[in-house]
Amino acid sequence: MRGLIRLRNPQDLFAGLFLVAVAILAHYFASDLSMGRLVRMGPGYLPTVLSWLLGGLGLIIALRGFTIDGPALAAWAWRPLIALSASLIAFALLLERGGLVIAIIVTTQVASLATPHHRPLSTFLLGVVLSAMSAALFIGLLGLPLTIWPDFG
Amino acid sequence: MEALVSNLALGFSVAATLSNLTFCLIGALLGTLIGVLPGIGPLATVAMLLPITFNLPPDGALIMLAGIYYGAQYGGSTTAVLLNVPGESSSVVTALDGYAMAQQGRAGAALAIAAIGSFFAGCAATVGIAVVGPPLASIAQQFGAAEYFSLMLFGLIGAVVMASGSVIKAVSMIVLGLLLGLVGQDVTSGASRFTFGLPELSDGIGFVAVAMGLFGLAEIMTNLERSQGRSEADGTVMPVHSLMPTKADLMTCIGPILRGTLVGSFLGILPGGGAVLASFSAYTLEKKLAKDPSRFGKGAIEGVASPESANNAAAQASFIPLLTLGIPSNPVMALMIGAMTIQGITPGPQVMVKQPELFWGMIASMWLGNLMLVIINLPLVGIWVQLLKVPYRLLFPAIIVFCAIGIYSLNNSPVDVLFTALFGLLGYLFVKLGFEAAPLLLGFILGPMMEENLRRALQISRGNLMTFVDRPISLGLLLATAGLLVIVILPSIRRGREEIFVE
Asked: Which of B131, B195, B212, B413 pairs with B39 at a CA distance of 20 to 30 A?
């Protein structure tokens, strides 16, 4: 019994604070919507009620950070996190402008940066194989309206 | 009885058409293909393969999705036995004795008994659905808005109670899911909620983006994180020699398969039950019943037969609340609801009445799907073994590409791909903060339906909240929900008190 307040469960503290933050945002963005009454609920009724509920739960969880022992905050693996998100963003940006082949080759290269064992050449071959397969499967067989090559016209 | 036979006959006439058989086969194959990949469970598999079914006719789409689900589960067991990497929590127990058997050179027997057990369980559960379905649906047809609201609340809380981990965190995930489900145009008033002026959000957040991000993408991220320290070779795949189990094996397994099927069918119906709980309970039961419990974990074939039967029975039985009540008992069923909604089907008791060919066709296809799994998987086991040898550094970029194309193809919208990335990040954040994403998905899917029923119930009762308590079925469901909550919260209160006393 050293101090009265001691952080014992950092994971829960941050988890709770995260929920409280989301609840405050939700409450703010729901505040323009009309509440209505129980008999005829407006569009804002449930969002407001749920944001209060979420905020309350978040507060309890955050307080548990000081009452119940729990795990520390785990370290983040930034590498896969950034590489995979970036690969999807690249795909979203490239598909319509650059066509399927370029989108796939860039996406696989960016995604494979997620592991330190990546090998650009074999990933490139993978991209080529995947492009051919996707073109045959999604455009040839399923008839999706995708372009294969960039449109230079 | 007569009705049962004629219903099943109708079902088989739908399911046995060439196109539906093909969808079922493709689903089972694709499900196994993805499910066999280490670290990717049925939920992630179904989430990632959802888009390919959306251009199909409704019955074909649902038949294929169901096939993907069993295929994924079966694939997970293969990985558990051969690689000791359970792809999902329901095959954790299979890995215990399955991998031990593989080390003794009996991988083939383990895989075969898993297939036989699953097939038997699948057959039994299919008949179970056909028997239990109609009476349940006819009860549910009398439900009004108040009963539906209470039922959904019960389903949500039930799912949380069964899930492992912290109850309060799971409940907050439900609330967050409900909030996310409200995004988009309000059906009643037409007002835009949380759309931030983005036209892409006016129909709500796409559930495929949510599911694929939270489960598919986040799962790959955590897999990569786990393997970062490790070198290239992930582990050795056990060789498969003979597939035939001995006669003695078969005789030992009759009891475990029967018991596993019973346990699984029962637990599968309960909200939050499903495959995980079923396989754990079945394994524990066998261990208790065994004359020599010490054999378990060292390659006891009962330790494979029973949980595998149980998880397949449970997977199938979890379709009962989905098809008769429109309530998902686990996150995979929540995805099925999403898929049904996209196909223009409102899940619930009216499906059986209005679209009997869809309902019974799906049930018949479950049986056919299980048969196909036995037929395709045992001979194809060699291919799955080869697949397990492909290095992960080549597998995951390929998975990402297929996910991206799939999600784009839903609405031909790059924004959906961006949302998937966003939910992938969110899913990773949840893992780090100790949240489970499954309750969020359930809340997200049920949210709009709950709001609709809540509003309608209160409109009918002229704003009187007592309507939920005055109606007996609704009251019963609410009491059951409260009971569940009390059961789970009590021990943690006690534990909390003990902690304080220790201080």
From this structure: B413
